[in-house]
């Protein structure tokens, strides 16, 4: 009996492992073989004039503004203006137009993007160097997790550019963009649509399409968290599939054609502690696609160019100075050497197109399978329990024989159903906990390694129950329901009398309940195999 159970369990495990391997793409990102080498460790901007403004040179006046958009809509914003050393406002109407200052419009990364919460340190620092900055609120009524239109966003941000150009004291022909993260997919569109824009500052620019960047970020976060190798199989299957419910068309937006069309100077900056962006790859593609690109890497800086200090997260001490030198030194700083400088970036793997999953490429199908399986697992016991209870009542009233599952089936069927559900719940919980650790840049071997082992052990328990159930069904030759008094496994049924009647309908219902439950559990096991719970190195 033991050998038979072990052999059947092993066969099921191998079948599930093979199913999981062929059901979708593997994940084998190509390593970076040739690394980018900054010319110098200093991030100082070549060609910058020594007498241009520096952060802290001016007091800053901050004003809340309202920016009109199309169709009567409007967004709020924060305008920050430098006040010169004499105490005169930079927007003095009597000022010489030749002394009008450059302006910068900030373009938000992913998220809600409220002006009062975003770019506070950077916008204030640049304003204190003599640059007028405008941080608009992000328009949110047409922006969601499922739907983002970067070309439409570019048209909305264009109103902020027009607003800043009309601010007294701003040189309307010296306005540029400061775009962070997701905003770096928007600002190149704006540059092409508005040739009057003079420059753009790209902070933590992905350059590659969103789907590629997402897969790269997930891979990097998981590696930093030290997850087991088997977890990585889920990356292309999650990122590459069509998301349930539709949407996310922006995931394949390609910004590189827009970069190739614009010829204004670009300052691209990255933090070496940013695990979400392909730092070296993005730099190489920028250098290939655009002219007059200056690149700086900041040591220990994160995605927002902040570093950990005893006082908390603050801008890298050289960042605002370098950006101000670059903006205020244009056009001389546009092509001044060194082109690439700063700390050494370390990108281990390339961001690449994400392969399409074979089976569950359509997320609606995946969700449908799981919901259907759970429905079957709920329906099956109801059918069995209802038929058994009805048979017992009929037996009491008329002497009819009741119906029940054949002996030896109830325990393994329950183990299979409960084990499949528990493994699925465990896998979802494990992914949620690992995601939190990864986003917080934390490591916990007990949770990351031990949790994965626990999920797989739960899966094995379900498989052993399936093996016991399969062997018993084979012994019964598929007759999973019977009428009469319930017997123990191995007990011979009594000889039926002429008066004994079989409730055929009840037997059919119990049989249907058994197979419905088994089918639902099997569907969950296949889904678990797809997500890697039954990998055997295949």
From TrEMBL:
GO MF annotations, alphabetized: carboxylic ester hydrolase activity
Family matches, as InterPro entries: AB_hydrolase_Est10, AB_hydrolase_fold
Bilayer-spanning residue ranges: 365-390, 411-439, 451-470, 507-533
Highest taxon listed in the record's lineage: Bacteria
Signal peptide: 1-23
Keyword line: Membrane, Signal, Transmembrane, Transmembrane helix
Protein name (record): Peptidase S9
